[in-house]
Amino acid sequence: MNSAYHRRVAFGSELGSATSSDLLDTPAVLVIPVGSTEQHGPHLPLDTDTRIAEAVSAQVVARAQGGPDHTLRYLLAPPIAYGASGEHEAFAGTISIGTEALRHVLVEYGRSAGRWARRLVFVNGHGGNVAALTAAVRLLRSEGREAAWCSCTVRGGDAHAGHTETSVLLHISPAEVRFDRSRPGNCAPLVDLMPSMRRGGVAAVSEVGVLGDPTTATANAGKQLFEEMVSGCAGRIGRWEPRVDGMLT
After folding, report:
1. CA distance 112 to 236
2. In the 8-state DSSP scheme, what is residue 42?
3. What is the CATH number of the domain that holds 13?
4. Are 71 and 240 contacting, i.e. CB atoms less than 8 angstroms apart?
5. Under a CB-based contact definition with an 8 Å cutoff, are residues 107 and 50 in contact?
6. Confidence of residue 65 (pLDDT cuts 50, 70, 90)
7. How far apart are CA 249 and CA 239, in angstroms?
8. Is 12 within 8 Å of 57 (Cβ atoms)?
9. Could you tell me the pTM of the whole model?
10. Contact yes or no for 217/166 (Cβ under 8 A)
11. Total domains in the fold of the chain
């Protein structure tokens, strides 16, 4: 991901840049972005959810590293870039591995990483991944592992590739936004669209694959929305109070 928010993580705080011997001294909290590769209308990149999850995770790690608690070391893991995106498969570029496969990936990931990491936190950028995350983390916790998950959410955000995601991308990855191609999609409440989407996916309710209005997006709005995502995840991780299903409260 080519994001300034990814590059701001201090060298030595990225799992991929560390060596095995670097991880011996301080118990680690591994922060794992979980996204998707799926259509986001004609104007946003296919890795939008992954970009957002990774940028939020990077800022969570950077803030935790600069915090008062030096008994734990926070590490940013490479993202899991494929998720459960079957509702978008009518659009070119979408690659979905489905809920069950994603659940298996998350469980085996957690079992392996849990051999050396003190805690595992999956930071989710795609709503379709929730069922897999809930089931996987519940199982990992039942096996005695300190695993949890949280989502990159904001209050009142629209559903897909609209004002919310377009604004955030204009803030964190402006060069990747084809704003001149943006078109309003179906702006009806998601609850009203779900029956048709269950039968025919997003294509059944939006010809352009957008649920919301990206034409109202701005970088300034994206900065505020992104900060809300980061603060929400950072606060929940800092409190570390997983619910029964493993979601951080």
Report:
1. 24
2. B
3. 3.40.50.10310
4. no
5. no
6. confident
7. 8
8. no
9. 0.94
10. yes
11. 1
